[in-house]
Amino acid sequence: MALVETLARDAWFARCSPALQQLLVAHGHELALGAGQLLFRRGDAEADLCCVLEGALRVGSLRADGREALLARVEPVQWFGEIALIDGQARTHDAVAEGAARVWRVPAAHLAPALDAQPQLWREVAQLACAKLRLMFEALEDIALLPLAARLAKRLLLQAQAYGSRSAQPRLRLAQEHLALMLGVSRQSVNKALGELEAQGLLRRHYGEIELLDVAALQRLAQD
User: Fold this and answer.
1) Which site in 69, 125, 173, 174 is 20 to 30 Å from 159, CA atoms measured?
2) Could you report the per-residue pLDDT of 9-25, keeping only the tens digit for each?
3) Which parts of the sequence belong to the Cyclic nucleotide-binding domain (predicted)?
4) What separation in angstroms does the CA of 170 have from each of 139, 160, 166, 196, 218?
């Protein structure tokens, strides 16, 4: 499959103007990562825009006391890294390969001047950041208002849809401990909530995977 066709599987890239699509393809290069390898670290000054082509990356942070915060698990063909590109400041989180992965990386040193030459394209990059900001606001509201089962259903659906990047996939390669980190609760709490949803016939757990059996019911639960 041609690179443009692969990247166009992402909803944001597919909506981009041909001019921006051409910039992202022309100025980028493929990068292979091994399991546990950092793509970038929190505080790094570089601001490259990236897209996962194969595998998955965890985006979060590890504190000095060993506590980990997991913001998202990024899969094909999601774009990320736009915040530093837009504001020119340091990276906000670490991005580490979960296993072997391939990433399309567009260096800011080439992309930013090209965008400055066509300033209307910056709006399209901002739309990528705004879509994620809306999800963040919704997640903060959910913490205050929704029970864990509803939050869990919503997170599973978001992960299945790659946070709006694609249509829902029925099987998720997602460890329970990572799901717990993303929700900010204990693994035991997630395990119990998953068991309740499994008992209702909404999903099935496999080793390292979660299979969504009734997406419509999960959507109704997520809206409660």
Assistant:
1) 125
2) 999 999 999 999 999 99
3) 12-106
4) 22, 7, 12, 18, 12
